[in-house]
Amino acid sequence: MWGIVPAAGRGTRIQPLAFSKELLPVGSRLDGGVERPCAVSEYLVERMIAGGADKICFVIAPGKSDILEYYGGAYGSASVAYVVQPSPAGLCDAIFRVAPLVAPDEPVLVGLPDTVWMPRSGFAALPDDRLSFLLFPVDHPEVFDAVVTEPDGRVVEIQVKSPEARTPWIWGGFKMPGRVLHELHALWRARDGRDEYVGTLINAWLAAGGEAVGVPAGESYVDVGTLNGYRAALGLLAEANAASDAPASGSRVALGWPTGRPFAGLHATPTDKPE
After folding, report:
1. Which of 58, 78, 173, 188 could disulfide-pair with 134, CB 3.0 to 4.6 Å?
2. Which residues share a beta bridge with 108?
3. Burial of 206 (0-12, 13-18, 19+ CB in 10 A)
4. In DSSP terms, which residues pair with 78 in a beta bridge?
5. What span, in angstroms and rounded, lies between the C-alpha atoms of 11 and 15?
6. Domain count, the chain
7. Residue 119 is part of a domain; what is its CATH number?
8. Which residues of the chain have pLDDT under 70?
């Protein structure tokens, strides 16, 4: 299973930084028994691995070699690969850069590397055989992509950063078979690549007879791409750390690192709109 990590963005909302925004330290992790800072993108990667991904592909921009240097060729049990998005052409363009690597019968996970969300096991709630969105409740759906569903979970519409969002549930990640990735890629090209956001492409997919489901298995979601979101993420992780049982040795639990314990009952969202 592939995990696609679109990491070519410039991170203008949280600049200036001396490194790629995906490497922003948020919380910490244990590395050989030593506590070290945890890059924000690690939370997504380890959740992808927990969801079954054994291959991770970072989509990076020219000049973001620090991500390659940080992750190298493997992370935990997963192999790591890289493709380049030559210019910032949107999320759809970034995701489809990975399409040539994905077999039709191979599941694919997609998430955003500047987010922190709970529970760690969220991706495991999504089915392998259809396009499915992992949904999270937030206080300000108008700054995200709100997912309108029928009672049975069928996706009716994705409202992209709409001030009139009809639901508090947003997507924080999604999963699909490789064949669906290729079908979406073909539709995107047929639409002359004009869809920058995933939501508008999915709406066209639904209008053409495609199907998708929303799975409300998310508990809390934070966009770390703003200063308010960064502060919220630190609070979320601190609360999660406090809620988890302390190890017998008395050492600190690595924030967001696999511990075998679920995080529950947490909710945080950014309060400022992205640029």
Report:
1. 173
2. 2, 176
3. middle
4. 75
5. 6
6. 1
7. 3.90.550.10
8. 10-19, 227, 229-230, 241-275
